[in-house]
């Protein structure tokens, strides 16, 4: 799989970074929307380690973006963009993080019980069944099951979910497990807090008030270590603002304002 796509016309001053890990193409709706105003680069992660993804993202930016770029990351992509900006500050003009997860293990809740409480009975059964199948450690091809699980979680992670086309090019379970396990170990340390001081550009966190990755945790972690930090809280919004009935338009309004 090619490790980037472009939207609109060059120069590509904006780059959108998908989450997962292992969900390339997830940010396509955002890239498409913004491409009416700016050239947008969509890096697609292909490496199965945290270090590999940091290096790959930096190389894609160096080769294809109009530097310094405005970097927009969602979920795991927000963490990856944060780490890459800390490592290569000259590449990034502004960092926008959407649905940023907690940066320490102590601040990370168990999402599954809350997801289950937000779903009807039939979908609760589906979620637990899919989680067991995807995580059983066997080597079967589970990309389809991973896709079903991610889409179900997206519903539970949303305040007013608007069904839309699944833009993920290929669900990559191996990458999800490999990078996810590394990230889990990093969360047990203060590494992510320690590197924040290396980020010199403005940082804007866009967060839904219904997101399980709590806005107050992100603000508490980053406001004290990043000089130019701002949190924008979206009402009636979960983890995927572009899929939210009540928050979608406001989300894009904020993004456009921050990119100008």
> Could you name the ranges where pLDDT drops below 50 across 5 or more consecutive residues?
none
Coarse morphology: globular
Total helices: the number is 10
Order of helices and strands: EEHEHEHEHHHHHEHEH
**Given the helix and strand composition, which structural class is it?**
alpha/beta
Question: Could you write a compact summary of the structure shown?
Answer:
With 260 residues, the chain is α/β, with parallel strands linked by helices. The protein has helices at 28-34, 50-64, 76-87, 111-117, 121-134, 143-156, 173-187, 191-194, 215-222, 248-259; strands at 4-7, 12-17, 39-43, 69-74, 92-98, 203-208, 229-234. The chain contains ten helices and seven strands.
What's the structural blueprint in terms of helices and strands?
Layout (H helix, E strand, L loop, with lengths): L3 E4 L4 E6 L10 H7 L4 E5 L6 H15 L4 E6 L1 H12 L4 E7 L12 H7 L3 H14 L8 H14 L16 H15 L3 H4 L8 E6 L6 H8 L6 E6 L13 H12 L1
Parallel strand pairs: 2-3, 2-4, 4-5, 5-6, 6-7
Antiparallel strand pairs: 1-3
Overall description:
This protein has helices at residues 28-34, 50-64, 76-87, 111-117, 121-134, 143-156, 173-187, 191-194, 215-222, 248-259; strands at 4-7, 12-17, 39-43, 69-74, 92-98, 203-208, 229-234. With 260 residues, the chain is α/β, with parallel strands linked by helices. A 7-stranded mixed sheet has the order 1-3-2-4-5-6-7, sandwiched between helices. Helix 5 (121-134) packs across helix 6 (143-156). The longest helix is centred in the N-terminal third of the chain and has 15 residues, at 50-64. The chain is globular and about 45 Å long. The protein starts with a strand and ends with a helix.
């Amino acid at each position: 799989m090619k490790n980037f796509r472009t939207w609109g016309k060059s120069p590509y001053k904006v780059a959108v970074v998908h989450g997962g890990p292992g969900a390339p193409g997830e940010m396509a709706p955002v890239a498409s929307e913004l491409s009416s105003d700016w050239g947008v680069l969509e890096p697609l992660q292909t490496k199965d380690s945290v270090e590999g993804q940091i290096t790959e993202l930096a190389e894609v930016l160096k080769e294809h973006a109009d530097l310094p770029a405005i970097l927009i990351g969602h979920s795991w992509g927000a963490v990856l963009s944060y780490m890459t900006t800390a490592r290569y500050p000259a590449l990034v003009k502004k960092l926008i993080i959407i649905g940023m997860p907690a940066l320490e293990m102590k601040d990370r809740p168990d999402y599954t019980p809350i997801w289950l409480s937000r779903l009807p009975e039939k979908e609760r059964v589906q979620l637990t069944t899919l989680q067991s199948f995807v995580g059983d450690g066997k080597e079967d091809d589970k990309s389809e099951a991973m896709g079903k699980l991610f889409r179900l979680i997206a519903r539970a992670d949303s305040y007013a979910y608007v069904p839309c086309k699944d833009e993920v090019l290929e669900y990559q379970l191996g990458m999800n497990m490999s990078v996810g396990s590394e990230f889990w170990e990093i969360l047990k340390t203060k590494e992510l807090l320690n590197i924040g001081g290396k980020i010199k550009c403005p940082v804007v966190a866009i967060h839904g008030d219904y997101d399980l990755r709590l806005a107050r945790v992100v603000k508490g972690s980053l406001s004290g270590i990043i000089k130019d930090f701002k949190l924008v809280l979206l009402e009636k919004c979960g983890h995927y603002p572009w899929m939210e009935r009540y928050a979608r338009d406001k989300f894009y309004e904020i993004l456009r304002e921050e990119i100008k």
